[in-house]
Amino acid sequence: MLKSALGFLALSLLCLGGAGAQAATLTPHKAEYKVRISVLSGRLNTELRKTETGYIATHRIKPTGIAAGFVGGEIFAESEFRPGDDGFIPVRYNANDEISKDKLRADIQFDWETQRVTGSYQDKDHAEPVAVDDPLVDLAHDGVSIQYELMHDLMSEGASRSYTLFDVDELKKLNISSVGTQTVKTRAGEFEAIGIRHQAENSSRQTTLWCVEELGFLPVMIEQHRKGKLRFRAKLVRYEMTPESDSAQGE
Prior knowledge:
By secondary structure, the protein is mostly beta strands. The protein has 3 helices and 15 strands.
């Protein structure tokens, strides 16, 4: 569950008007969320940085409060991606999950010239690293870059009805649907948010991101349900645009 929640702090289907795919740009920023995973609490910090060729995004979950005394470590994931003809193209993805039962470690590279994804991963079922060398037939995203692809799409011509997620050892089709709008109250403010739900085929897990247009469709609340029960919730605590912008929101 945590791999999916961290990896696809992901998004939505809505055909929203915009300035066109090439005109939409992402705003470098830092964000902090208060996280509740079943009965445990934690903190999610995300950061988007601009590079000479594109962007680097990092997501990090750490337990807090009583949970920190029982659960050590963190979940970390980082993705490098760049603009392409049809949106963002992942270049590199690495992850280190010290908390959840998956215990995932991954180092993945996307080579779009040779149309292959290579690298290695290790998890609870594999004591030694497993080599990855798979073909890339169509555009696929890692578990972090896919969130920013969807934010980009919502700012331009609208998100697709499905996306392909490269989940380290398999490709997953994520079906996207809109669940309307609602007012979301957070410690960073009160927002009118668009609810975007995604669900992998043949999965009982549903993730809904409540995205805000004025924040570049950043999700201000993320909820994950499994078999109808709420398993994960993250709500925005702080949002800050980084040096390329001179304004900030939240405390």
